[in-house]
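Dear Dr. H.,

I hope your travels went smoothly. While you were away I took the liberty of generating a structure for the chain from your last submission, since the lab meeting agenda had it listed for discussion. I wanted you to have the full record in hand beforehand rather than looking at slides cold. The sequence, exactly as received, is reproduced here:
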Amino acid sequence: SFAFIDHDSSALEKSFATPSCLRARCFLVAEHTYRVLVRGRFADLTDDQRSMLREHLEGFDFLRSGGFSEEGALTFDEKLDFFSYRVILTASEKPDDAGLRRATAALDALGVDFRGLRATVTDMDEMKINRPKRLA
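The corresponding predicted structure, in token form, is as follows:
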């Protein structure tokens, strides 16, 4: 999909194909769909935080809730050492920064400290799909 980005202060009102926006002050930006995987480690968890995180694990179905989604999914195991956050984003640039912000917000909502965040981004629009060859 495409969005028109206007350098004018009223860009939101003029976005998406208004003819007056097609002058020299704006440009066309392609939006892509990205899968962002953020990984990190829990840091300095208290006993209360550990028990709260273990409560979150009870009844958690990784196959249903642990995959990539637009809402984002924070996953970890009972060791409470490493975690991952998976999210699908549609953006024109910097999906890794957006993924890191979303992961940080999810961890802050739980009230836990973390370290070593790093994001891996896959552009789903640029992925090559190998189709099976037909047998003659």
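Two observations you may find useful: Confidence is low (pLDDT under 50) at residues 1-24. The first helix runs from residue 11 to 14.

With kind regards,
E. W.
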